[in-house]
Amino acid sequence: MTENDPNAFGQPSGFPPPPPPPPQGTGYPPPPPSGYPPPPPSGYPAPPSQYGAGYPPPSPAGYLPPPPSPYGAPGGYPSGPPAAWGGQPGGLGARWGARLIDGLLLGIIAFFLSFFFDDGSRILVTGLFTGLLTFAYFVAMEVTQGRTLGKMALGLTVRGPGGAPKPDFKQSAIRNAFTLLPIVPFIGGLLGVIAIVLIAVTINSSPTKQGKHDELAGGTQVIKS
Q: How is the chain split into domains, by residue range?
């Protein structure tokens, strides 16, 4: 009998026959081609052809662009030190040179003044000149001229807080108060050296070259004009 013959043409015995194809016009879509996913259900919009709806276009190579730097320079680092008011900040070397010039001028005056006193009073005169008179010289020159003779020689100017052309009396007195330390008996010289070192360190570490004395004076600044 051929119905039990496995080599007979047709469907092997024991398997149900395939379902008949759906009639035409019943609303059922034809089956998709083999190996491809079915199409999306009807009623969904097609993807937009342009970059819209608030989505930016993709960057090259699929990478997102880096966020803008708050400093305006690549890598998140500032492009340079903050600018001074009307010029570049005066560096430590130039300011130290101006102090040496002013010190030499004051030393010459102190030398001639010492002839008017006896030997026992010369130490007192030297202390006063490196203290009180030095303080008076710096304050008077900064308030009236905006710079001392040493700063004039090296093109430096002392500006007041906020870029004022020169500091007022109070501001200049505060920033030069350390020159009064040599008046203190016994330890005045040591205190003066400590103050100078502290000022030099803070000037060198500041991007605007403002020392501790400039900070205490409200923000005075020495610039290279």
A: 88-224
Contact by Cβ (8 Å): 12, 19: no
Sheet order of strands, 156-159 included = 88-89, 221-224, 156-159
| Per-residue pLDDT band at 146 (split at 50, 70, 90) | very high
Is residue 49 scored above 60 in pLDDT?
no
Closest CA to 147 of 68, 139, 79, 44: 139
| DSSP structure string for 151-168 | HHHTTEEEEBGGGBSS--
Helix, strand, or coil here: 84?
Answer: strand
Which pairing describes strands 221-224 and 156-159: parallel, antiparallel, or unpaired?
A: antiparallel
**pTM attached to this predicted model:** 0.60
Q: Which two tokens stand for residue 87?
A: 């010029």
Give the closest residue to 89 by CA, choosing from 158, 142, 147. 158
Q: What share of the chain is helix, strand, coil (3-state, %, to 5)?
A: 45, 5, 50
Which of these ranges, 138-152, 174-188, 191-205, has the smallest mean pLDDT? Answer: 174-188
CA atoms of 70 and 68, how far apart (whole Å): 6
